[in-house]
Amino acid sequence: MENVVEITREEIKGNKEIAQALLVAKSPFFVDTTIEVDEDNIRIKSEVLEQYDDYNKIMLLNLKDKLRYLINLSKIYTDLENSKYTYRFDKESIVFTENGIPLLVYRGVVNQVYPYDRISYEEFLNQYKAIVISIIDVKAHYDKLSAGALEFYRGNLFCEEIAKEPTLEGVVNILLDFYNKEKQDNIENYTRVTKKNIKFLKTSFLMTGIATLVLGLLIGYMLLYSIPQKDKIADIRLLFINKDYSNVIEKSKKMNRKSISQEDKYIIAYSVIQSEPLTEKQKERLSKINNQSNADYLSYWILIGQAKIDEAIDVASFLDDPQLLMYGITKKIDELQRNPELSSEKRTEQLNSYKSKLEELKKKYLGSEEAIKKDDKK
């Protein structure tokens, strides 16, 4: 579905080319946007994918997921506080990915494209409270709350506490505390089972020993792998929203990359890039990845973060990407130098082999020694 806003060319202030470039640039905070330009008008099209969850879909989630989505939403203000982008912030202007990452539908540019001014702290806080309360308390009306009825809200005691809280940080702390309690309660008292599995459980009582064994294996899988995996993914997403990239990497170290969704591969890969000893130019270039990037490319960085250098080198070879291959070999050389289990002779032999490969790649893809030096300086 496309959301279209049409403006006149005169409504774009300052350098129109820069403003248009910012409108269509990929961003982790906005849905993808395209523009159509004719002689007098500009149509700004925001692409809202079917798999995105809007306000009405969030209302149908369980309480734990509602809280997680709302906590993630709070980060929008600080993440965009000093950016060149402006935005509308209300229940119609936000969607979430299937992993609970918030995206804004409408974007502007400071002093250039409407809305021209950044949203104020007070306005964001009031809108955020209205969204939070109306999602948690289904009897509350968002429109009334956002129009000034927050101070008169009475109903859910937890929501009353939110309505009275004067700061965004305070509201988030209340939500986090409630989320952790709800999460612990779910762990202690519930196991989520799909309708299909419930039907299977009912019929399994009529089965013989083999069917009982299969059922036991299924439940064992859910308890030992599926649920812990989902909790770990939820923690990783929250850490990513908080820009705690080192702990994203730590949490993902023992995960099988093949069982990670494309969205989460992007989260982990981006965190690794931000944590690696790369130059600012390299980070800026590599950080342009998104959740639509090549899955093998994202897997390469996940393997780097998991210290599975040999596998990362194999992926780089498969991608036929000399830059990734050279970086992987550089990491391998560092790994060999730090490995205390290798004998001096074995270490020297392997180091020479990898250094030789690295030099061959540099000569082949970077050209002369002068070009190599220039590349190193970068």
TrEMBL record:
The alphabetized UniProt keywords are: Coiled coil, Membrane, Transmembrane, Transmembrane helix
Segments forming a coiled coil: 344-371
Give the stretches traversing the membrane: 205-227
Q: Report which superkingdom the organism of origin falls in.
A: Bacteria
Q: Residue span of the signal peptide, if any?
A: none
List, alphabetically, the InterPro entries matched. T7SS_EssB, T7SS_EssB_C
Tell me the Pfam families matching this sequence: YukC (PF10140)
Q: Which family does it belong to?
A: Belongs to the EssB family.
The protein here is known as Type VII secretion protein EssB
Q: Which organism is it from?
A: Gemella haemolysans ATCC 10379
